[in-house]
Structures are given as C-alpha cells and as structure tokens.
Amino acid sequence: MASKKEASRSAEEASPAHPVAASAVATRLSSTVLREPAEVQFRQELEDLAAMDTYERPPGWRLSPRAVLAYICGKEFKGVAPSPKYIGNERLVEIAIATLATDRALLLIGEPGTAKSWLSEHLAAAICGTSQLLVQGTAGTTEDQIRYTWNYAMLLAEGPSLRALVPSPVYRCMTEGKLLRFEELTRCPSEVQDTLITLLSEKMLAVPELGLQVQAQRGFNLIATANTRDRGVNEMSAALKRRFNMVVLPVPSDLKTEVEIVERRVAEIGRALRLPAVPPGRDAVTKVVQIFQELRRGQTLDGKNKVKSPSGVLSTAEAISVLGNGMALAGHFGDGAVTEKDLAAGILGAIIKDDVRDEEVFIEYLENILKKRGTEWGGLYRACKELL
Length: 388
What we know:
2 domains; alpha/beta
C-alpha cells in the first residue's frame, strides 16, 4: 500500500494547479471544452514566437512588445507567421502594448462588439501566459471581490491568517506579476471602481486584518474594458481616469474590413463548435454586413438614400452571431449550405429588439432599399418578408 506521503504527492501532481498536470489536463480537454482560452488555442504560435524572440522583454513578459504585436495583428516575425487576432488600426494595438509596458493601466473603450474583450484576452495571453485572471464587472460587484475574501470556517476556527485568506484575481496578479483583466469596469458602482485607485497608484494592496501590505511584483498591470452604449454605466471618477491610458476601439468603417473580420470569426466558430455546415460564402457575409452598416449609419453605403436606425447596436459581433446561427440552422435543419432563409432568421432577431418601432424601421428598409436592389437581393428580401 502506498504511503500517505506518496498518495499526497500523486494527488498534488494530478491537480490542475500542478503545472505539468495542468498542461496535460488542457491537452486532454482540448477536444471537449466548448471554448479554449487564447493561451491554449494558440499555444503553438506563442511558443514559436517566444523561441524566435530576441528583442528585450519588459520584466515579467513572456514576449517582447514586437512579438506581441506580431501575434495580435498576424505579422510575420522572423519566419513565424501567426494568424491575425485583431483586424483594424495597428497603431491602436501598438499604443495598447506600449501602455502595458509602463506603470499605467490600459482602458479599452468602444461600442459593443468592437473586440474589446477579444483584444484584452489575447494581450494577456501573449504577455503573461494566462488570460484567466479576470474580474467581471457588474452592478453587484463588491470591494471584497476586487481585494480578497475569507474562508469563514477557517477564520472562525483560527482567526485571521494567510491560510484563511482567499485571494482575488487582483491579489494573485499582484503577487505573481501577471496581467489582470477587468471586464465592464463602468458597470461597477463608483465606490467599487475607486478601490482600484490605490492599487494602480501605489501598486500595493493592504490587508489590515493581518497588518500586511501586498506589493505588486514586476509584470503586474491591468487591462480594463468599458462599453459606451450599455445601460447602467457609472461614470469613472477623475482620479481613476488619470490612472488609465485610454484606447478607443472603433467600429469598422469600411465594408471590406468588416467582412474580413466576420468571415474569419465565423469560420473559427464553426470549427470550434463543430457545426455540420460549411461557412457561408463571401456574398452572404457581405450582404449581412452591408445591411448592418447601413442601418447603423442611417444611410446606404453609396450615400444616396437615408434610412432609419433601429434601437440595437448592430455591431460586428452581432453579424458574426447571425452567420453562426445560420450555420447551425443549415447544418441541423438543412443540407449544410447556408441559405437566405437561414440568414433572415438571424437578421430579424438582431434588428428587432424590445423597441416596437424596430419592426417598422426594418420593414421600411426592406421595402425602400432591399426590394429595389433587384434579383441579387431578391431571395433575402423574400425570406425576411416571410418571417414578418
């Protein structure tokens, strides 16, 4: 019979907290998990970049800023050709990376669906090797969730101690020198937001119950996201804003760029979810994106006709969702090829929200714009009309 020490060692090595076991668990689950984190999904790219990276790396970083940029934007780097993760203004990515190499935190701002969380995840994966140290901001987020909590059974039995302390993701990032992701910062109450002021300015977290001051290790920083269109947004204080360098991520302005983003992400989602359908063709993607762009702008792309805009955002992420849903419909209830009827169902769901006027806006767009575009758009026009 194995000794208690051997059993303990075996249990420790089997635990996901053990680095070797964690890697094995990630490999074993890679074919069953619904969504792998960026550092798992793109592990080979990150390893190849690290092997070829000879540039100076900031303290605590796994890649140099140049290599991080290559990983995010899909630029060739010393023979390594990573896939692009963010398609847009490369200068904005450079500013974001440079910010994280300083003592200032980064705040990514934009409308819903502008890839704020996506960019945040990949920045964290490339810089510190994990994107999972995350705080999700909500109206119910408390100061304890940002600082630390207690194992109350142990606290009552032993009193305050490090054993009884339950570290938050912020606490762990500070002690391990990692990047913290703070999603939807402006959804948190203002007094909770201001908990970050001391953390970001002093780089220190006080634990008064233990008379302890946790000093941030080199490599610690914070990437926050803020949604400009969300309800329930709480304005950040001037003191907190000064601790951030803000980067505004715009909605793609031209049709070609947005079509490229949507086409790439829909194909990736289809593979990840193993949808039994082929990705929609460029023509179908272009039609969905064009409809969304025209309704967002309030005019047709040629500028000849004004249209009313619905209450929804109609972001790039919404277009991706519409096409992904179309693949699911085509695969499970069709022949595997996305049709106009599959697209119409998703388009209506994205455009017609809780505002009763949205349906009127879309009907007007169908009759005054789509109907007059001829046979090329006729199938999609009829499919949408059938569902109204």
